[in-house]
């Protein structure tokens, strides 16, 4: 296992976990459950910090399924870690950063589920009739998935361009063949 890859993986996972857990701790120490704080008044009413929790998945789906999501988070973390360390040498920074962001986010929420049996949420976004409260781990997972998606699109475009080059290569004419 390449040392640089291991160091990058541990660093990104560690930074995501640290920011996630410290942010959640600060929210829990300074706000009552359900209380909001307008951290950036110029973003009102689009964004505020609201102490909330979620026993289910994103957007409150599957409430009371905390233990299921705890197991899924650990399985996903192992699968992504194995995938990460089996990447070939042609892997780009998008995947090398995206995968540990997903793992760090999954573990951040798993820590909450182990400690509290729910996930602490606090980023409260409201646009028109859409409202969502999430946390740093959720955003790390989302950004990690976006990075992997961009990398996959890039790979597919490169492969398509290579196929195009092969199919449009000039065919040499051979004398004496009719």
Give the oligomeric state of the chains in this entry, treating copies of one chain as homo and distinct chains as hetero.
single chain
Q: Mind telling me the C-alpha Rg?
A: 22 Å
Low-confidence stretches: none
User: What global shape is seen?
Assistant: elongated
Number of domains: 1
Please bin the fraction of helical residues: 55-70%
Tally of separate helices: 4
Strand order, largest beta sheet: 1-2-3-4
Distance between the termini: 57 Å
Strand content is 5-15%
Structural classification = alpha+beta
The SSE order reads: HEEHHEEH
Number of strands: 4
- Average of the residue pLDDT scores: 86
Specify the biggest β-sheet: 4 strands, antiparallel
Provide a short characterization of the protein structure.
The protein has 178 residues and is of the alpha+beta class. Helices cover 58% and strands 13% of the residues.
Describe the structure.
The protein is α+β, with helices and mostly antiparallel strands and 178 residues long. It has one domain (3-165). It is 58% helix and 13% strand. It contains 4 helices and 4 strands. The chain has helices at 3-30, 66-85, 93-116, 136-167, and strands at 36-37, 47-54, 119-127, 130-134. The chain has a 4-stranded antiparallel β-sheet. A hairpin with a 2-residue loop joins β3 (119-127) and β4 (130-134). α2 runs antiparallel to α3 (93-116) and α3 (93-116) runs antiparallel to α4 (136-167). The radius of gyration is 22 Å and the shape is elongated. The termini are far apart. The model has no long low-confidence stretch (mean pLDDT 86).
